[in-house]
Amino acid sequence: MKKWLVRISLGMFLFAVLFSGFVFFQSVVTVSVPDTNLRLARANVPEGSNAFTVLLEATNHIWWPQKQESEITGLTRATNSNWDFSFASLVLSTNTEALKGWDKAMSMPDFQVPECKFEDGLEYLSGWKRLGQLASIRENSLMRRGEDVEAFDEMVQQIRMGRKMQNAHGVLLHHLVGAAVKEIGYSQMRYWAATTRLAPEQLKNFIKQIEPLPNEESIAYANSMRMEYQLSVTMVDDLRRGKITDPEAGKVLRSARFVPEFNVSKTKARLAGKFQFLVDIAPRRYCEVKFPDPNNRPNFFLMLLSGNAIGEILCELLEPSLDGTFARKVRSDVSLQATRTILVLRAYQLIHGRLPENLDALVPEFLDKVPVDAFNGQPLHYSAEKKIVYSVGKNLKDDGGDDRSNAAPEQNHLDLVYQFDF
Fold first, then answer.
1. Residue 30: exposed, middle, or buried by beta-carbon count in 10 A (0-12, 13-18, 19+)?
2. Cβ distance 261 to 23 under 8 Å?
3. How far is it, in rounded angstroms, from Cα 316 to Cα 12?
4. d(CA 389, CA 417)
């Protein structure tokens, strides 16, 4: 009996030694990191010609008192039925310096944010959003005073500023804030199309002005993914070297430099694969992309065998949602096309005295082709009776323009509906 116990113990000991040796080998083996296409060189932009510097200074002049936040926010909504001209004038006059900085930044050709670090708070991004909201107050004031051309000019500039923010060599957060600033401009145009006094030719001119350059939106998205990757791998290197500066995180994460279950090259290779996937799909339609199953993850034992359990967990924290991140980009593309379509419908109505039966009637008098739904690659949907333009959304099914926004989650259809009132 004792001999069997000795043999079992010896076998278990040998297995533990072999297992530990295998894991240690997996922890130290180096793999190639295919990230050549994920490296984005930064331009040498002089501080005096960088719109970022001007915009940063503008955020320091924002007047947005917390006690009056709800009233100010109300002015940003074009739908506000209780418009207060005197309060709007007060807000705009008090924010004169902030808006001057916004205007100056829009006129500057160069826009590059500082290189991001893991510990950066990026507090200035909330200031960007505030500046965009102040610009919308100015747009609403101009429209209510009958200065439609000036108002639409500012909406165009706001959309262009959002695009600049998205392609300013920033990370995903910069891209998302830029998309939010663009969306303010899009929503403003869609609402004011109903009451604008612009002539059809003027509307057609503004439609051309909000059209991005070829591949501009896709390039901006891909570049933000590249910068997000670079931020992530820098964080991995700093962690391995014990250079994480946050006191709480540093106390735990610095110890990873002495743990075998952290293979830097394997961690970087996994990150490179995920971010390269996001870069590659940038110009595609949502329906053309097959996303990996988010639930298809290795179990903890396989993670241990890989010799990179810590790196795998770290990747889970650093990698953005592949589906969700790309869907937000596609949604912004759809919003642009819906805005163009609604402006065209207004121009058509002004000329013909009625809405068209379908979007094909807009070609070629107003458009070269019917705007495409970036989710399914098909023409956008339209209902003259319901006065809506809509996308099929993520489920890629035409639910008749029913978004059921107030329904229970299991009943919520995913059509993206854009209403107009003319």
1. exposed
2. yes
3. 33
4. 6
Give the mean pLDDT per block of 10 residues along the chain (422 residues): 64 59 68 92 87 96 96 96 95 98 94 86 94 98 98 98 96 97 98 97 96 95 97 88 56 50 89 96 97 79 78 89 95 98 97 96 94 97 96 92 63 82 94
3-state SS track over the chain: CHHHHHHHHHHHHHHHHHHHHHHHHHHHCCCCCCCHHHCCCCCCCCHHHEHHHHHHHHHCCCCCCHHHHHHHHHHHCCCCCCCCHHHHHHHHHHCHHHHHHHHHHHHCCECCCCCCCCCCCCCHHHHHHHHHHHHHHHHHHHHHCCCHHHHHHHHHHHHHHHHHHHCCCCCHHHHHHHHHHHHHHHHHHHHHCCCCCCCHHHHHHHHHHCCCCCCHHHHHHHHHHHHHHHHHHHHHHHHHCCCCCCHHHHHHHHHHHHCCCCCHHHHHHHHHHHHHHHHHCCCCCHHHCCCCCCCCCCCHHHHHHCCCHHHHHHHHHHCCCHHHHHHHHHHHHHHHHHHHHHHHHHHHHHHHCCCCCCHHHHCCCCCCCCCECCCCCCECEEECCCCEEEECCCCCCCCCCCCCCCCCHHHCCCCEEEECCC
- The reply to whether omega before 356 is within 30° of 0 (cis) is no
Distance between CA atoms of 166 and 159, rounded to whole angstroms?
A: 11
Question: In the prediction, which pLDDT does 119 show?
Answer: 73
Residue 234 CA to residue 118 CA, distance in Å, equals: 8
Tokens of 33: 């990191």
Per the structure block, which two tokens stand in for 340? 């163009």
Residue 330 to residues 197, 333, 388, Cα–Cα distance (Å): 31, 5, 19
Strand duo 381-383 + 388-391: pairing: antiparallel
For residue 402, the model assigns a pLDDT of: 79
Q: Which two tokens stand for residue 275?
A: 């971010």
Give me the residues paired with residue 382 across strands: 389
Taking each helix axis as running N to C, give the angle between helix 96-107 and helix 124-144, from 0 to 180 degrees, rounded to the nearest 10. Answer: 100
pLDDT of residue 247: 45
The dihedrals phi and psi of 86, each to the nearest 5 degrees, come to -65, -40
**Dihedral angle of Cα 197, 200, 201, 205, to the nearest 10 degrees:** 80
Question: What residue type is 267 in one-letter code?
Answer: T
Distances in Å between the alpha carbon of 165 and those of 169, 215, 302, 389? 9, 16, 41, 27
Asked if 376 and 285 touch (Cβ cutoff 8 Å), the reply is yes
